[in-house]
Design a protein that fits this description.
Layout (H helix, E strand, L loop, with lengths): L6 H20 L6 H20 L6 H25 L3 H25 L5 E2 L3 E4 L6 E4 L3 E7 L2 E6 L4 E5 L6 H16 L1
Helix pairs in contact: 1-2, 2-3, 3-4
């Protein structure tokens, strides 16, 4: 949950965007009230979703569903505005819909459990689109201490990751010995 602190703000901004689109539809010569109602419903749902998301048991699934609905509604709005000869608004909606789809995918990947794989050839770190493989020869030091895994690269980059699994002191000592042995090889 700490990785998604701005998520309620982003849902609120999407809701405000939907409500602004209602104003754009209302000011048209021949407004489509069905599309306006869809934007009002999605706007209010997006604004109030952050207030109820902490009470939802399957938070990741609910968040992904809300992002898909937001992206679909923005894409539908794109088609609506393009059909009413407003290309600037239509293409802006298209970009916002694509952005919302990307945000939804990134949040989906962030909420998935992630695992670091360490073997005799290197370390594999999970990413949003693909995993990143780092060889032991690129590492200056790797240490696990107090539920914090520290990866110190030779190019002066440091990456610290919180370990959520309970690891016994004996297992921690074994892992640190393995890391030291692989770095010295």
């Amino acid at each position: 949950m700490t990785r998604l602190r701005l998520q309620p703000v982003m849902h609120g901004m999407a809701g405000i965007l939907f409500l602004f689109n209602v104003i754009g539809i209302y000011k048209m010569a021949d407004p489509n009230w069905l599309i306006a109602a869809l934007f009002v419903i999605m706007g209010l749902a997006s604004i109030f979703f952050p207030f109820v998301m902490k009470n939802i048991r399957k938070f990741g699934e609910a968040n992904s569903l809300m992002r898909m609905l937001q992206a679909f509604t923005l894409m539908s709005g794109c088609l609506y505005f393009l059909s009413h000869l407003q290309p600037i608004v239509g293409f802006t909606m298209l970009l916002a819909g694509l952005g919302m789809a990307y945000i939804g995918y990134a949040e989906f990947k962030i909420l998935q459990p992630s695992f670091i794989e360490m073997d005799t050839t290197g370390i594999t770190l999970p990413g949003i689109f693909s995993n990143r493989r780092t060889g032991w020869n690129e590492m200056k030091n790797v240490i696990l201490r107090n539920d914090l895994l520290t990866l110190d690269y030779k190019n002066n980059k440091i990456l610290q990751l919180e370990v959520l699994d309970e690891i016994s002191p004996l297992k921690t000592a074994e892992m640190n010995a393995f890391f030291e042995q692989r770095i010295q090889s």
